[in-house]
Automatic annotation (TrEMBL):
Its main location: membrane. The keyword Phosphoprotein does not apply. Belongs to the RBT5 family. Residues 1-17 form the signal peptide. It is a lipid-anchor; GPI-anchor. This is CFEM domain-containing protein. Keywords: Cell membrane, Disulfide bond, Glycoprotein, Heme, Iron, Lipoprotein, Membrane, Metal-binding, Secreted, Signal. Residues 1-113 form the CFEM domain. GO terms for cellular component: extracellular region; plasma membrane. It comes from Tulasnella calospora MUT 4182.
């Protein structure tokens, strides 16, 4: 589960800001148009946390916003994204949304089935890896960081179309 700081920080969830922008318009119109024309799949349209870590979705949004918004609007959109993701429990302001206590769990847990370290979908499908990371979270983190780590991990996997909630449990 690796994250591109540019993609995640700026637009991995520009779309999620749009959800709130419908109620509190802080997202520039150009960015709202980009959101309306970009699919968050496999994330559900109302799953803000998933959208916050969906790199493909974020890359498409970033491309659109960079092409269609002024620099001022880009900065305004970026701030709206950061705040919206925080509200959804995903802090992308530092690039990696996992709390510090969980980052080594994700980075250092080895998979016996995933050869490509950048194939996050493979890691999400590897039940043994998911369970090992979850165990590491539980031994390395305390609440609220433990809950954040689990929430971010589940959202990351939903962004690859994989539901790991039955694997990690409560």
């Amino acid at each position: 589960m690796r994250f591109s700081i540019t993609t995640v920080l700026f637009a991995a969830s520009l779309a999620s800001a749009y959800t709130i922008a419908n109620r509190q318009t802080t997202l520039p119109a150009c960015a709202q148009t980009c959101y309306a024309n970009t699919s968050p799949a496999p994330c559900n349209a109302t799953d803000v946390a998933c959208q916050c870590v969906n790199e493909n979705f974020g890359a498409e949004l970033t491309k659109c916003v960079m092409s269609n918004c002024t620099q001022s609007d880009q900065l305004q959109a970026q701030q709206a994204v950061i705040e919206t993701c925080k509200t959804a429990g995903v802090d992308i302001s530092g690039g990696d949304p996992f709390p510090a206590c969980a980052q080594t769990c994700v980075q250092n847990t080895k998979s016996s089935t995933c050869a490509d370290p950048n194939d996050d979908a493979c890691f999400c499908k590897d039940t043994a890896w998911v369970q090992a990371v979850d165990t590491c979270f539980k031994s390395s983190c305390t609440d609220p960081d433990l809950q954040t780590a689990k929430d971010v991990g589940e959202a990351e996997c939903r962004a690859y179309g994989v539901d790991i909630s039955p694997t990690v449990g409560a």
